Amino acid sequence: MKLDIVARRIALFEKQFGKPHLYLAYHAAFPLALTPDLMYRLWVNFQQDIHGQPLNIAWVAVGDFLLSGLCDEVGYELYEMDITVRNQLLRQLKADPKFGIQRINHLSDFLLEYVRQQILSDDPDTQNFAKTLQWTALAYTKPNEAARQIALTFRHLEMLSWRQNQPNHTELVRMASLVETFAEPLADAQLEPLVTYARGMARFAHGDIEGATAQIGTVAEAGKIQVAGVDIPIPEKIQEHLEDASSPVGADFRGQNLCGRSFKGQNLARANFSHSDIRSVDFTNAILTGASFRHAQAGLQRFLVIGLVLCAFLLAALSGIAAGLVGWILGWELNMGGTSLGIGIASVIAIMTVLTIANREGVNNKAGAIALSMMGTTAIAGFEFLNLYAVLPEVMRSGNLLVQAIALASGIAIAVALTVIGNRMRTRALPMTLIAAGTGAVVGIIGIVWFWFVKAPLAQTALATLAVNMLIAGAGAIAMVIAGTWMWNGAVIGTAAGALVLCGFWLINVLAPLGSNWMRAVLPGVVTVGLSWAIVITLTLAISLVVVEVEHQIFARAWILGAFLFGTLILFIIVILGGLRIYPSFRVSEDLPMILAASIVTAVVTFVSQRSLNGDRQLTGVEKFASIFATTGSTTFHGADLTDADFTQATLKIADFRAANLTQTSWLHTKKLDHACTEGSYLVHPQVRQLVTTRAAQDKIFDSLDLQGIDLHGVNLVDSSFIGTNLRAANLQNSDFSRAKLVRTLLDQADLTGACFTGAYLQNLEITSATQLKNVTCKYLFTRLPSPDNPDPGRQPEDPQRTFNAREFADFIQELIDENKHSSAKPELH
After folding, report:
1. Are 355 and 608 in contact (CB under 8 A)?
2. Is 733 within 8 Å of 751 (Cβ atoms)?
3. DSSP H or E stretch at residue 346
4. How many Å apart are CA 267 and CA 291, to the nearest integer?
5. Which residues of 416-447 are buried (b: 16+ CB within 10 A; e: fewer)?
6. Confidence class of residue 433 from pLDDT cuts 50, 70 and 90?
7. Gyration radius (Cα) of the chain, Å
8. Is 507 exposed, middle or buried (0-12, 13-18, 19+ CB in 10 A)?
9. What is the pTM of this model?
10. E strand or H helix at 762, and its extent?
11. What H or E segment, with its residue span, contains residue 781?
12. 323 near 568, Cβ under 8 Å?
């Protein structure tokens, strides 16, 4: 609307209703949208000018204004003014000596108070209306804060568009229209880039890509736009046009097929690899500082992918054969009777324990150590049964085998129970276990001595069985708890050595009187436990390899499951047909237990292997091996300097980032980063990978993590926990640490420019003079963590009604720096 038309309309309104009505119109122009309730509250709260003189505005002015030509009804009880009319009324308000800029501040405070409750509403329409009013209030009094909130909203819209793979054009147009209404106050605060960006997004929403590129290109620097400390994302289509129009600073490889090339050790600083195919490219030890890999495709070349999938198929098939063999051996042991029955029961208990641990804990070092100790325990059980049969055949054979089996199961159960207790208690596990094992040994020795004085065969059998199983329980408990306890410190070799020493000790004691019988009775039990664990590892490895390359996990798991069942079927066919059968011809009545046991083991192992790949379980060794194995021939950044590199929306499956410098590297919206080899970097933690790709960190826990050099600029870290976290040299510009827990957090050389610490818990913070603290804001903070009895401990400033001014907060931070200097300068005490 032309200004002369606007002036005539306002003059006509004043002539028709009088000056008091015009004063109300001045105030009504401040909110971007109006409701009858809001108009009535404006009338109630602004009956005087800034000098206290009455304005004499009648109550009918509310209805007169809403129904006048200055206002348009845009919805149910929702009204708006033409932007030109609104701006003219606001100019007249500021120019009138009765009001001026002071009244603008009063209106801003009023509007912020008015929307305080509405902004928390569950109704999206009410919430959007409240946000609009809030931004209106801030635009005239705190334009930087208004710009920051609007920029965050634009970023949120872009993230939603990325997730849904479709931009919300309607919302973009609405936001652009809102920003246009704030153009004047934003321009006064030198925030024109936000207005320009909004205009460009409006063109983008209407399908004018060239116009949007031209508009946004005027404010974009190096493909980025930053407003009020917030990086506003540029839509992919516009980004592509910007890249095509710009001249690269470094080497230009945009959109090229670079498969299999080597850039090993080369200086490619600020090179542009955007939209390029870098599968199987070697960047080992290359200098890639500031390089762009936006939308790049990393990974294996197609022929290597086929080889990897076939390798996984063979691994799964071998696992299927081994699973069938385990079940067959178990069925044979349970079917043979005699000592084999007892050893079979021991093997079943051991296997079920191993598989249960794998199911609950995952395929990790701890579970592997317990599997080794279970092998040792099973071997000890077999040796002792054979020893009794060799030395006391007439006594043991007169006993009840069921009683022996129950006694053996009880002994193993004691060992398992002690293991569980040991794992719970951790530090006190080993002393407790040694006491229990010693008690078991004493009871066993007493039982053996008593055995020679008791003449009744049944009593002798019971005593001998008790003695043997107490010894087994004690030895097994030592092996298992040592394994479980040591594994908290990662001592795999120590665990294996402990289990082997126990086995060796019993071998020396037992093998002499047994001849070669021990191989037939003991080895099957040990082999079944070992094979069961190997199957879980191999099958998990096979699934890991395929999931890395195949987009659809259901297909990947089905592929491996099919290979596994194929291997099991092959074994069944071979054994049933007698091709490799070492026993008499197949008879259902005798061999049914073997088939049943094989089927059960196959089903259980398959279930455990599938479950072990869930994201909440630890795969440690298997995952590391699968990652390293798969990266052979893949894209490698091993030892490369990727400082300030940009991987936005790149696909990084099985890329090798080991030993690379990832300081302030951007990972926004990267794909398949969880399948990359990131050992030794902050990306090894799943929650950190999610943080850097989504930049969503509110109310998250990052305690005790090494996040040195991570790029978290502009991230919302409200209510997050960084207790004992290393954030050295991290980019934390304009991040919001409100109510965050920063206890023993290392912030040396971190960039905290523009960060917010209001309500944060700063306890023993390791901050130095090298930490950048320019324009940091903080109204108040706490020097200790909260407790139920004291939710606000050590508040600074101590007066709950006061807040920091800039000088006070700077002094507080300087005290922290001085304390750290003093503590670091103290000599070490010897």
Report:
1. yes
2. yes
3. helix 339-361
4. 11
5. bebbebbbeeeeebbeebeebbeebbebbeeb
6. very low
7. 37
8. middle
9. 0.61
10. strand 761-763
11. strand 781-782
12. yes
CB neighbour class for 20 (10 Å; exposed up to 12, middle 13-18, buried from 19): middle
Q: In sequence order, what are the residues at sequence separation of 6 or more whose Cβ sits closer than 8 angstroms to the Cβ of residue 136? A: 30, 31, 32, 111, 181, 182
- Cα gap 628→678, rounded to integer Å: 10
- Hey, what are 21's tokens? 């009505």
Could you give phi then psi for residue 262, rounded to 5 degrees? -120, 125
**Secondary structure of residue 749 in the 3-state scheme:** coil
Neighbours of 553 (CB within 10 A): 12
pLDDT band at 746; cut points 50, 70, 90: very high
Q: Do 111 and 136 touch, CB atoms closer than 8 A? A: yes
For tokens 């609405």, name the residue.
Answer: 174
Distance between terminal CA atoms of the chain? 82
- The span from the CA of 797 to the CA of 809, in Å, is 9
Contacts of 212 (CB under 8 A, 6+ apart): 200, 201, 203, 204, 235, 238
Relative to beta strand 781-782, strand 741-743 is unpaired
Strand order in the sheet with 741-743: 741-743, 761-763, 781-782, 795-796
How many Å apart are CA 199 and CA 201, to the nearest integer? Answer: 5
> CB-based contacts of 615: which residues, under 8 Å, 6+ apart?
686
Go through 404-415 and write b for each residue having 16 or more CB atoms within 10 A of its CB, e for each that does not: bbebbbbbbebb
Q: Is-contact 576 306, C-beta < 8 A? A: no
Strands 741-743 and 761-763: parallel
- Find tokens 């920029």 and name the residue: 151
**Tokens 């209404």 belong to which residue?**
181
pLDDT at 590 over 80: no
State how far the Cα of 338 lies from the Cα of 356, in Å rounded to an integer: 28
Contact 30, 139 (CB under 8 A): no
Residue 194 to residues 187, 201, 755, Cα–Cα distance (Å): 9, 10, 20
Beta bridge partner(s), residue 742: 762
Rounded to whole angstroms, how far apart are CA atoms 54 and 47?
A: 6
Arithmetic mean of pLDDT, 566-585? 59
Q: How far does CA 591 lie from the centroid of its chain? A: 49
Give 330-386 pLDDT, tens digit per residue: 666 555 555 455 555 555 665 566 556 555 555 555 555 555 455 545 544 554 454
User: Across the strands, what pairs with 252?
Assistant: 272
Tens-digit pLDDT profile for residues 604-629: 656 655 554 454 444 445 555 556 66
Q: Does residue 658 register a pLDDT over 70? A: yes
Q: What is the Cα–Cα distance from 818 to 769, expressed in whole angstroms?
A: 9
What sections of 165-225 are H helices per DSSP?
169-181, 183-188, 192-205, 209-217
Helices and strands counted in the chain (H then E): 27, 8
DSSP states along 350-416: HHHHHHHHHHHH-SSHHHHHHHHHHHHHHHHHHHHHHHHHHHSHHHHTTS-HHHHHHHHHHHHHHHH
- Cα separation, 589 vs 586, in Å, equals 9
